[in-house]
TrEMBL record:
This is Riboflavin synthase. The keyword DNA-binding does not apply. Keywords: Repeat, Riboflavin biosynthesis, Transferase. It catalyses: 2 6,7-dimethyl-8-(1-D-ribityl)lumazine + H(+) = 5-amino-6-(D-ribitylamino)uracil + riboflavin. Pathway: Cofactor biosynthesis; riboflavin biosynthesis; riboflavin from 2-hydroxy-3-oxobutyl phosphate and 5-amino-6-(D-ribitylamino)uracil: step 2/2. Transmembrane segments: none annotated. It comes from Lacibacter sediminis. It is an enzyme of class 2 (transferase). Gene3D superfamilies: 2.40.30.20. SUPFAM superfamilies: Riboflavin synthase domain-like. Lumazine-binding repeats lie at residues 1-95, 96-192. Residues 1-95, 96-192 form the Lumazine-binding domain.
């Protein structure tokens, strides 16, 4: 379980392919502190640490993960968001994030404002029921508040701190991002669907 509060950014130093899987070596400020078998969110995707050495850690994504997230687009040198799992005695500053990406979205508009940035993302309409005005979403693992919610797009505002300490500065128009919708909304929608069928 995560909170969507990014702890650090990391850089992909190497990519290895084995069958349909891809392994990524990542250098980050927290890599050396990680332990094998730990769950760590990478751009919002929960991956298991398989190896730690020389200030780097290695994780592997299977075909399904590569298909449903933006990990398949990762290249050497890319900057990614890193968050270690939630400590149960810690403050929950963002919202409950599982690290299970639902789909990807596309940045269709980027507006630089005086002191902040406004991004608009398009997403598949099948997920429209999981977004509400001023609700929460994880974009590349970052806990954000949505506004201007429509059937197939929404906007988020990025403050300077988030812009400087995450990979949002690398997100331009046309970029693909990972989206995880609020777990509470998923349960509410599922419950409504079951009652509608009975």
């Amino acid at each position: 379980m995560f909170t969507g509060i990014i702890e650090a950014t990391g850089n992909i130093t190497a990519i290895e392919t084995s069958g349909t899987n891809k392994s990524f070596w990542i250098n980050s400020p927290v890599s050396q502190e990680l332990k094998v078998d730990q769950s760590v969110a990478h751009n919002g995707v929960c991956l298991t640490v398989e190896e730690v050495k020389d200030g780097m850690h290695r994780v592997t994504a299977i075909a399904e993960t590569l298909d449903k997230t933006n990990l398949g687009n990762w290249e050497k040198g890319h900057t990614i968001n890193i968050e270690r799992c939630l400590l149960m005695n810690a403050r929950l500053d963002g919202h409950m994030v599982q690290g299970h990406v639902d789909t990807t979205g596309t940045c269709i508009k980027l507006k630089e404002l005086d002191g902040s940035w406004e991004y608009t993302f398009q997403f598949p309409t099948e997920f429209a029921g999981l977004l509400v005005e001023k609700g929460s979403i994880a974009v590349n693992g970052i806990s954000l508040t949505v506004f201007n919610v429509a059937k197939d797009h929404f906007s988020v505002a990025i403050i300077p701190y988030t812009y400087e300490h995450t990979n949002m500065q690398a997100v331009k128009e046309g970029a693909t991002v990972n989206l995880e919708f609020d777990i509470i909304g998923k349960y509410v929608l599922r419950n409504a669907q079951l009652h509608a069928k009975s």
